[in-house]
Structures are given as C-alpha cells and as structure tokens.
Amino acid sequence: MTRLLDQTYADARSRFLTAAATAGAEVTSFPHPLRGREGEELAIDVAVLGSADAADVLLIVSGTHGVEGYAGSALQAWWLDERAGQRPDDLRVVLLHAFNPVGFSWVRRVNEDNVDLNRNFVDWDDVPRNEGYGKVADLLVPTVWNDETQESTTAALMGVAGEVGLEQFQEIVSGGQYDHPTGIFHGGSGPVWSNRWLHEHLGEIVGGAQRLGLIDLHTGLGPWGYGELISHHAKGAPGYERGTAWWGEVRSMHDGESVSASLSGDWLAAVDGLLPEVEVTSAALEFGTVDVFAVLQSLRADAWLHAHGDPTADDAAAIRAQVRAGFIDDDPAWLAALVERFDAVASSAVQVLSESAD
Q: pTM score, two decimals?
C-alpha cells in the first residue's frame, strides 16, 4: 500500500493516535496551552508499549523541528502498524509525537516563540555567543521580502560565504544564536514550553530504564531520501562508540563530517544530564530533501513572515508551502526511502537492546 504524508497536524496526529490504539499502546496526551493554526488542540502525545519496569527502552521522537514532524509522524505510525507486534516482551518502546506541536501545526521549524527547540537546551548561566551571526542578521531576515531584497541579500550572503568558507558560514548561520529573537536558528532567552515539559516528564516516560536508545527524527539536510545518523558526541566518546556499535556509520556533528553544523543547545546532548543513572545511546536521524540553499531560503522567508508580515493572510500560504517543500517531499518514493532506512535503524536498536537483556 502506498503511504502518503498528511497535510495537516490534525490529520497526522489522528493517524498516529489511531495507529497507537490499534497497536494496543498506552497513550498519554499533554495539551499545549496554545491552539493550532486551524484552532485545533495541540499536544505532545506519548504512546508506550511495554512495562514501566523495563530495563531496556527505545524512545523515538518526532517534531522537534515542527514541520519535520510530518515525516517523523508518518514513520512513527508506520512502526506502530508494521513493527509493534514484533516488539520483544521485555523491551519498552516509547513514541513521543510532536515535541514541538506549534511549529508542526504552523508548518514552521521553530516553536511559538520563534525558538529553535534544538538550540534551547543550553546553560542559561553561560549562554553561548555567536558574534558572527550579528554581522549577517539583517541580511538573513530583512524587513522587506520581495524579489529585489531577496536578490540583493542573497548575493551579499553568498559573498560572506565565499569569504569565510561554506563550513564556517553554516556554523555562523545554523549553529545557534541568542541575540536576535526574530532571526533564524534562535535559541531563545530561557527554557521554552517543550524544554520545560521534557525536564518534568522524561523520567516518567522512560520508566525504570537502565539502557535507553533514542532516535530523534529530522529532515532537511543531506542527499534526497538518505538518512544520516548524527551524534552529538565527539569521536571516541563512549556515546559515540556505542552508536557506531549499534548502527555502523554514525557521524559526529563536531568533526566536520556530518551534514549538521556543531550545535549549541541541542536536546539530545542534555539527556545524559537529565538521566544520569541511565546509559543513553542516541542519534538524530536526518533525512535529505532539497539543496541547502533552498532550505535556507525557506527559513528566511518564514522568519520574515512571522517577524514583519502577516502569517494569517492568504498569501502566507505560499511561504508555508515553500517551507514544507524545504523539509518534506510528498513524492511517495521519498517516504518509501525513509521507511526503509528508519526500519533498519530502529530494528538495529531493538536487536541491541534485546540482546543486552539476555
């Protein structure tokens, strides 16, 4: 059967909840205080299969970057439909749906505060500084967004990239910044709602875990349909070495080999501290869509829309479509490629965790 991606958050949530119920999962919903773009209820939904006392737990997360949840949700629903019945009895599997439900609903990468959730988990007493971003902030998100300003600012940005090199340019733009709240890749000024929720509830959803496998589903970087496993650990660190033992090739965001820049405030790096007694093996699974330039343009347009435009106007739909196209491909072949790769990654985690329990 050909699977298609849902077109709205409400439809994706409904499919996930239906799949969870059919699989016999226990679902707990944590409502978000805001409503969605269409007035719908928003929530983080957590579906659990297995005992709270299980020593081995697999956690699969979608929607850290809202719009990327369309693919992540589809993969979670697929797993519930096709693999939940094969789960070993002593393995607890937790599927966290829509970590950033506001961004999911509004087809944005960021949350209700224009904050990139994966830059928000920093030490707020020692916030990282990204002075390079300030030099290009007005180029990235100008106050006027038309053909002329897009052409002139893009040319200027390409000039900066030529001066500093593409790798350094990516670091400046996407590594995380904390001084420009209407800009892109903004990490915020304090813990946002989803961050606070995780601090409060992560312990209870992983239960009695002694070993935790964690897969965070992302889209937007890398070759079309290919899923790169990205570690927040440096090469040689125990978490990195466990990741390579579980999955084979894992790339560190810190060594220049990953499609991701080295990030400040990513949430996977915070999990070790939140669960100090648990052996955590985690990776972001990043699926490619279009070229990096097209992705960046979509984020610039979205940031302008919410800072200087009207996101409720009829013409805002074109920018939402541009953002969706930057992070989602509605071609069934793209989703099929994602399913194949995700199945292999999740199955490897299940096998390793099951063997550790023997």
A: 0.96
